[in-house]
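Minutes, project huddle
Topic: does the predicted pose make sense with zinc ion bound?
PN asked that the exact inputs be recorded in the minutes so nobody has to dig through chat later. Recorded below.
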Amino acid sequence: MRKIDLTNFQVATSETARHINRRIALNIIRRYQPMSRAELARRSGLQRSTVSAIIGQLIAEGWVTEGASPVSSRGRRPRFLHLNGERAGILAVDLRPVTTRVGLAGLDARFLMQTTWPTPGTPEAFASELARTVAAFRSAHPEIVYEGMGVSLPGRVDPAGRLVFAPNLHWEPVDLKQVLESAVGLPVVLENAASACALAELWFGRHPDDVKDLVAVTVSEGIGVGMLLNGQLIHGRNAMAGEFGHVTLDEDGPPCSCGKRGCWEQYASNSAAVRHYQRLLGGAAAAPAEPPPSPAALKFTDILRLADDGDTRAIETLEHMARYLGIGLAPLVTGLAPQVLVIIGEVTAAWDRVGPIVLDVVKRRTLPSNTTQIVPTDPAMQPRLRGAVTLVVQQYFGAPNVA
Ligand SMILES: [Zn+2]
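Predicted holo structure (C-alpha cells), as shared on screen:
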C-alpha cells in the first residue's frame, strides 16, 4: 500500500467515489468496446442504476457513444457502447536533437496527421515552429476540440515543467512548459522520451494486461531509461532518475556530452556506433578520446543498411553495440527485476542480428532465476510519439490522484 503523501492529497468525498467509478467505467469501455451496458455492469460490479447514471453523463459529455449492434438478432437488439475517439484532439511532439515529429491524434491514440521538421537550435525558435504546425493542423481539422499537447524529449523536466538536463539537445535550463504553452495556447505536458515510451508501452504496447513493472530503454543519439515500477513512473529527485546512459563504464573512455568520460551511451548509442564505424573505416587502431563527428557525416541508418548489404565493418559495429547494450542492460535487469524490458530505437530494425548478442550478454551477467523478458518494441506503434499522446490521454483514463 502506498503511504499517503501529506504534501499532495485530497480527502475522500462521495464525489470522489463517483469520479473513481466513472474512471473505471471509461477504462472498461476503452478496453472491451464495443460492449453493452449489461456487460459493463458485469465487468465493473456496479449496480445497473449506477451504470446508467455514469453512461448518461459520459454520453452527455461526448466521451462515449452508444449505437445499435452491428449484428442483427431476433428480439431486442442491445445497443453498444464505444469510446468516442474524436472527443479530444491531442497534439503529440517527439522532440529529438536533429528532427522533430508532430502528430495529431484522437483519444484512441490513432494519428490523423503527422509532420516533421528540422529541430531549431533554441527553445524560442522551436516554440514558434510548433505554433505554426498547430495552426496548420487546426485549419486542416477545424472540427476537432484541441485538448492539450504532450512532448517527449531527450532530457529531464522537473515537476514545474522546467527543462533541467538535456545534454544532447544543447539547450540551457529553461521554463519550457511556459514557453510552449504561451506559443501554442494549450496545456502542455512534458516528459523524458524514455519515460513517455514506458507509458506508451504500458497503455498501448503488446504486453500482458497485468504488467506493472516495465522498463523502456530508448537507444538513439544517447540512451534513456524510463522506469514504471508498481505501475508508477519513477522520477527521482529533480526528475533525474533513469540517467543510466550517463553511468560511467570507463573513467578514461571517450568524452561525453554530459562533461564526463566513458558513459554507457558512449559505447551503445547510435552516435557511438557511427563513431565506431568511422574508426574502422580509418583503418587505424581505435583512438579512445576522439571528438564527436560532424552531424553531416554518416548516419546510424546507413550502418543498418550497410550491414544488410553484408558490409563487414557495419556488421562488426552492430555486434560491438549489441555487446555494450547487454553490458548496460544487465544491471537494470538484476537491480530492478522488471517483468518486461522494451528496447526502442532504430537498432530494433536489426534485432535479428543484435538481439541474440544482447540476450546472451545479459544472461551471462544476471542471476539465473531472472525472468525479465527483453523485447524490441513494435516500431509501427511509434512509441516516442505515442508516448507523447499518452501523457495527455492518461489524464482522462489514469487512476485519480487520491494518494
Ligand atoms: Zn555522459
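Observations noted during the meeting:
- The two ends are 10 Å apart (CA to CA).
- The chain is about 40% helix and 20% strand.
No decisions taken; revisit at the next huddle.
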